[in-house]
Amino acid sequence: MNAGAKVKLLLKRPRINAATKAHSTHPIWFIVPAFFFLIIFFIVPTVLNFVYSFTDWSSFKTEVNFSGFSNFTQLFSSGNLVADLRITILYAVLVAVFQNLFGFALALLLERDTLLNRIARAAFFIPVIMSALAVGYVFQAVLEPKGPVNSLFSFILGRPVEIPWLYDTSWTIVVVSVIHAWKWMGLAMLIFLAGLKTIDGEVLEAARIDGASWFQTLRTIRFPLLAPAITFNVATSLLGSMNSFDIVQATTQGGPGGTTELLNIYIVRAFGQGLFAQATAMSLVLLIMVMVLAFPLIWSLRKREQIL
Amino acid sequence: MLINALQRPSRIFQPLAVLLTMIFSLGVPFWVIIVTAGKSAVEARQPNLALPSQWEFGKNISTTFSEGNMGVASLGSLLLLIPSVFGVLLLGAMASWVLARRKTRGLSIAYTIGISGVIVPPAIVPIVLLLKQIGLQGTPLGLIGVYIGMYMSTVIFFITGFIRTIPIELEEAARVDGANPMRVFFRIIFPLLGPVIATATILVSLFIWNDVFYALFVVGGRLDTLPLNLYQVASSGLYLQNWNLIFSYILLMTLPMLLVFIFAQRRIISGVTSGAVK
Q: Do B91 and A28 count as a contact with CB atoms less than 8 A apart?
């Protein structure tokens, strides 16, 4: 053996040792049971989603055959694909806007640590822990044409008000997105509050001494420093509401006239009718849409972690 | 006092604004739930803000048990919740330990796959097909597997981050004393995971307790759970607009999670905000 090879071997040895050491101290079989469940019940179905979207799988046939893009062309020509996709994106954007607007306003309102504020923060978190289905039913009752909200408006305005909150083909999508935002605004509030706490008090004090108003410090100092909280809130509310079902099902069931039919509402309906392949094709549309938006998010989450 | 109030009008207006916001945004829905749950069927048909002429709360609650199968549904929900939460946390914690400590390329890829489910939505229709093929469709066992697979990513994401903050010297000291990996994990690491396990338990429990979407696909019509029964009670013709029963059901179903929230408020809040603002 020549000297060069010897040096190489010497250099190599500690690495082998480190690898075998890690192998015995942190054995790989510790991750096997977790990945068994993850792969069987999550990864494999996700892969199958791509396969079954191109078949004619339904409850009316015993065998499953490939059918190319026919599910997608059918969804496209029936108008469901474009309409439901448009409604889902509109819903997600509206939810993201309202949830963050409400959450941010609540965070500013409840910023100081008084007893009342602490009670209010806990109270605004109650909708977050409630079932979304239950929240939907509550608002179905509260927003009835002759229900509590309209009677409150009638009382305040002094004339009978019967707004059809959940029966309007153009505005009901906005109403249901506000309900969704109402359920989750407590979470957005908490994240904004945590973000506000990370801002150095001395910086704000200095700005105040220099004569900056409350609004000026908010706009020029606090808002830019809240960037991570805003990113997190916008991303989670956008992606979370795309996969929504419960609230819309409980309030409108996709109506009136299909104007609130989210992708998941269609998927449940098509599946119930035995159109399995069409339901799968629509869930592929949802998957792709979320992934297109999600990859930058996963990347930034991982990056943030590396900084830590 | 007066000068102080004039100098800082927010000291007076802020509490007033808080109270008004609470009354209009939370007070109205919560009030409607409580008064309607106490009404008779006739009075509850048209939901309003009025108090019930006679509180029939007890009667409504007993109807949710006798006709809405509340008791069976609670057991069904617990039957799904307990094994799912136990499984996902134990297996997730074990995997996270190795994923946090070993820094090879393969395991880095495994970690990325492991946390993919934090954002990627589960493909529910192929899940049903898969469960059919392995004979688990319509069974609690199948849904438990789905929940474990679905929330594994969230658990791995939370716990791996936490383990990285635990000094490795703690493990090495035990290893010098001759402890094997099982012993190191269960005696040294696992007890230190208390806070993150508590947070993840609460979050995953909340998801599973309130889930109706995945339950509908996998065990709908075969197993009673609280959200599934609420869905049936509210959408079946027989109970249509029996708001007194629907709201009694909602009250009872929310109560356990509300109690958990009251006792574990601090933990929940620090859990949901950790990592979000850095």
A: no
Residue A70 lies in a domain: no
Asked if residue A173 belongs to a domain, the reply is yes
Distance CA A166, CA A2 (A): 84
Q: Is the pTM of this model over 0.80?
A: yes
Alpha helices in B102-193 (DSSP H): 105-114, 124-133, 140-163, 169-176, 181-183, 190-192
Tokens read off for A65: 């055959």
- Calpha distance A174→A167 (Å, rounded): 12
| pLDDT single digits (tens) A118-152 | 999 999 999 999 999 999 999 999 998 888 999 99
CB contact under 8 A, B25 and A182: yes
Predicted local confidence at residue B6, as pLDDT? 46
Kindly determine whether residue B102 and residue A246, on different chains, have CB atoms separated by under 8 Å: no
Q: Does A290 touch chain B (CB under 8 A)?
A: yes
Q: Is residue A6 domain-resident?
A: no
Residue B152 distance to chain A (closest CA, Å): 7
CA distance B55 to chain A (A): 19
Task: Give me the CATH number covering residue A99.
Answer: 1.10.3720.10
Smallest Cβ–Cβ distance between B28 and the set A43, A109, A142 belongs to: A142
Residue A162's domain comprises 82-307
ipTM: 0.89
The answer to whether A303 and B278 are in contact (CB under 8 A) is no
Answer whether the bond into residue A256 is a cis peptide, omega within 30°. Answer: yes
Domains and CATH numbers, chain B: 2-65 (no CATH), 72-240 (1.10.3720.10)
Query: Are B213 and B228 spatial neighbours (Cβ–Cβ below 8 Å)?
Result: no
Q: How many domains does chain A have?
A: 1
Report yes or no: A281 and A71 within 8 Å, Cβ to Cβ: yes
